[in-house]
Specification:
The chain has helices at about 15-30, 40-50, 55-60, 80-95, 100-110, 140-160, 170-195, 260-265; strands spanning about 1-5, 10-15, 65, 70, 205-210, 215-225, 225-230, 240-250, 270-280. The protein has about 280 residues and is α+β, with helices and mostly antiparallel strands. A 7-stranded mixed sheet has the order 1-2-8-9-7-6-5. The chain has a two-stranded antiparallel ribbon with strand order 3-4. A hairpin with an 8-residue loop joins strand 1 and strand 2. The longest helix has 23 residues, at about 140-160.
């Protein structure tokens, strides 16, 4: 679950991981122009980008209240082992669709704990780490999950390399290009999902691949009124209107928490936020 910031006293915009992934899916489908290669293999990349966090389904269906904030737990404060299970489950969902989807999803899960392989400078919290922080009490659970994903990646790479049709997909340059694309879509969506409009400043996304050999730094500059200028612009055309569904929730005060948090959230009306991306 994504918990967006908000001005003091205002309710927060919440979206599930499925809704976050749906926003990422809009980005991958629109990505590509004369300066940026579109994602290939296209069908598999569209699927994994649109489903890379589906391991969160069970967690989002049974949300846990963070008593300190009065809001549901979400990205960054999901309790272990439930939080680590999401990475494994996400890779399983994607592997069931196609081995390559499972490989990229597994790399995404592993990379979240390792600075996204060094291909992103995006920080969920200002001044925070590019990696998910792990406390000493959680280290064993996290390492078990990460070791399992390395084993998954080795198994999948071997299987894909043995098939002449998919062998080019696991060439290092292609895998790195696709991984970087996934990270760009994910962090761009996080920029919108986690930050209220008043908190969205100028943000530069590093290592956005133009092709397998070269990258660009894409700078996002708010222009007001829900419009954001991207320079260079990596999407088709001159404008992309992206929409994310969610719901608003005011933090529960002491003694106000519902007995069934999932049921309470389900009763909230679905709303949308719109982000218009234009050429810088």
């Amino acid at each position: 679950m994504m918990i967006q910031t908000a001005p003091p006293g205002e309710p927060r915009f919440l979206c599930s991981m499925r809704e976050h992934n749906a926003l990422c899916g809009q980005f991958v489908r629109a990505f590509g122009n004369d300066a940026f290669e579109r994602c290939e293999p296209h069908d598999e990349m569209v699927y994994v980008v649109s489903h890379h966090d589906y391991g969160w389904d069970a967690f989002d269906a049974s949300p846990v209240l963070d008593e300190r904030s009065g809001l549901p737990c979400g990205i960054g404060n999901a309790p272990v082992p439930g939080g680590t299970d999401t990475g494994r489950r996400s890779a399983e969902v994607n592997e069931a669709r196609h081995l390559y989807c499972g490989l990229l999803s597994s790399m995404h899960s592993w990379g979240l704990y390792h600075g996204r392989y060094g291909y992103s400078e995006f920080r969920v919290r200002p001044g925070g780490s590019t990696s998910i922080p792990v406390g000493p009490a959680d280290r064993e659970d996290v390492d078990r999950m990460l070791d399992g994903e390395i084993a998954r990646q080795e198994r999948i790479r071997e299987a894909l390399a043995a098939d002449p049709e998919t062998a080019p997909w696991v060439e290092e340059a292609r895998i790195v290009q696709n991984y970087k694309q996934l990270q760009f879509f994910d962090t761009l969506a996080l920029y919108f999902n986690l930050r209220h409009e008043t908190d969205r400043g100028v943000e530069t996304f590093t290592c956005v691949p133009r092709d397998a050999e070269s990258d660009a730094e894409v700078t996002v500059t708010p222009s007001g009124g829900g419009v954001y200028a991207l320079d260079p612009f990596p999407f088709a055309g001159d404008r992309l209107v992206a929409v994310c569904s969610g719901r608003h929730l005011a933090a529960y005060g002491e003694g106000e928490a519902p007995g069934d948090l999932a049921a309470a959230l389900a009763l909230l009306p679905t709303e949308t936020q719109t982000y218009t991306l234009v050429r810088g």
